[in-house]
Known about the structure:
Oligomer: heterodimer
Order of helices and strands of chain B: EHHHHEH
Distance between the termini of chain A: 21 Å
Strand content of chain A: under 5%
Amino acid sequence: MTCDTGDLPPKAKRASLAYMRDMAICAVVYVGVVFGAVTLIRHMPFSLPQWLVVIVALTPLIPALMMVRTYMTYLRSMDELGRRIQTEAWLISAAVVGLGTFTYSFLEEWAHFPRLDLVWIFPALIFVWGVGSFFVRRRYK
Amino acid sequence: MKNRLKVLRAERNWSQADLADRLEVSRQSVNAIETGKYDPSLPLAFKIARVFAMPIEQIFSDDDAVQSAAQ
């Protein structure tokens, strides 16, 4: 989730820089937590009990929620046009990825297409949001 | 909705960035309002009126109302 500070007033520019800093911190924590979780579950000489595997597998959710909180804080600091652009971009992303995966599930079931790993849905949402916000932003230029 | 933002800004020799700073919005927002691509919310429209020290109806005009009056 990127942002440009080019034509922003000073207050919004500060919020934008704080967003980038906090998002970078969240990303570093996320990578650390995922690396730690994978090491614990797959590369240790002993095997963890199932309940502990479940807890460890859920730990990446913590930095992911920190990212969501950082993004929400940034969203609230935007002016009304900025919020509209973000909202439209998320709507495009939800529609494209939601309908895309929904439709693909029929292809999986009936046409025996390869199984789609659920882990790709969130990155797809972020990717389509990025592309969508580029085109939505252009509409208001 | 039409507006006289560009004219009023030019009368004061303000750039889009100057007006954006006064309104605490991005320059893109000012540009989008001026070109009619984006209609501001009521709070932002009132803020614009305060910045120009003018009544809101002297800055913004409703297209439908103008057409109805002409007919």
